[in-house]
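Sample entry (228 residues):
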Amino acid sequence: MHPMGKFNINEEISYYRKYSTPVSGEELRSLETDLKLWVPDLPDLFFHKRILDIGAGRAPMGILIANKYNPEMVVSLELSWMRIHSSVRWMSKLNSLALVCGDVFHLPYEDGTFDLVIANSVLHHLPNLSEVTREISRVLNPGGMYIGREPNFNNPIIRWVVFPPISSLAFYHIHHSPNEYPLRAEEIIDAFTAANCKCKMHYFWRRLPGLRHNILSAAISVRANRIV
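Predicted structure, serialized as tokens:
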């Protein structure tokens, strides 16, 4: 559980205000390399799909998918208007891309709108996760899929680096947002299961691609299918 228990919108927007520069080509190339580690069936998974990119930030994921993988449409949804607005110029180049300022706790879409929901390191920023997974399940069509990347906080090193003990704080500059918390794989599975989804975890580490251990790996590919 998140220690605060409730998502703080104002603190989240304030924290990310400084991260509003336009998406660069180098950033897109790095993201594409990373996707190969945690997105199954790349690039076929995105082909002609209706995709919702949640917690999109400056929308690098949506831009990459629209530019490279031929979706029917991809909507990048982000809470901070300043961040999502930094990528408006891409919309004139990519007909399948839409940028939306919105809230993942109340997704502004009809039931069954999307084939796929994707998120890159987003869930561990969201207390009351079961509210979010219910919304994800609602906007997915039956059989639709959520695919996401999360830090593996079951790895004590990852947990310590992101959330150092109090005794170590003097040596570190904390790099996490006010809403971020060490969300464990088991909590993610429970939240998606309660939302009528079948959830599986696939563990990986970008620096050690062959390492797929549930404790030693640095990251998780979360895959949840809405049950028909």
